Amino acid sequence: MNLLHNFFFNVYPYICLSVFLMGSLARFDRDQYTWKSDSSQLLRKGQLRWGSNLFHLGILFLFFGHSVGLLTPHWVYEPFITPAHKQLVAVVAGGVAGAVCFVGLTLLLHRRIFDPRIRLTSHRTDLLILVVLWCQLVLGLVTLPFSLGHSDGTVMLALSEWAQRIVTFRPDANGLIPLDWPYKVHLVLGMTIFLLFPFSRLVHVWSGFGTLAYVLRPYQVVRSRRIGLPHGSRSTR
């Protein structure tokens, strides 16, 4: 058990991050025409609209919430909020966002599985990644009662300490040993999503973040160029 614990929480994160970064780069370099999210909006548009909007709204909140919550050092927020209060805020906000995301993803998964036309046009990886995301959301919601049972904030501190040590290349997973099993499975499955990322339609997320660079780019100056025409002639379009 100690060997498995050490592998999954000290070694496996770097395997997943390496495949995530290098695989995304290789996918963009070799298969740019597959760098997209296949659309099926002509079929059952109403369910797609509700499912997609709810899913993306919830998943974006969860992604940035997890990133800020796990990677922000304790000393940054300590003057303003205690670990116990921070954990309570994370449970409430994460619970609401997780429920919204769960409803949206369930609609999308139901649409993919039970509509014969959409199922025939769906890749197996599309269904796989939706199922993995759905299981990850369920596990995340399962951890909420466990977090309420540890209202002193120790769980939040242990998870943050582990995540910050991973990104600073000082892995130490000893603090995760006392945690309940839903947290550990949730972490492993979350890292596995990064491992599957380059091989699925999730790569289109990079394009979404790429639009931020487009919005912030400087204006392009375009000047008109007048071309002299012979006397009596006129320009045509």
Automatic annotation (TrEMBL):
The keyword Hydrolase does not apply. It comes from the Bacteria. Residues 6-225 form the NarG-like domain. It is found in: Cell membrane. Keywords: Cell membrane, Electron transport, Heme, Iron, Membrane, Metal-binding, Nitrate assimilation, Oxidoreductase, Transmembrane, Transmembrane helix, Transport. This is Respiratory nitrate reductase subunit gamma. It comes from Acidovorax lacteus. Pfam families: Nitrate_red_gam. The chain crosses the membrane at residues 6-26, 54-76, 88-108, 128-148, 187-216. It is a multi-pass membrane protein. InterPro entries: Heme-iron_electron_transfer, NarG-like_domain, NarG-like_sf, Nitrate_red_gam. The keyword Flavoprotein does not apply. NCBIfam families: narI (TIGR00351). Gene3D superfamilies: Transmembrane di-heme cytochromes, Chain C (1.20.950.20). Its main location: membrane.
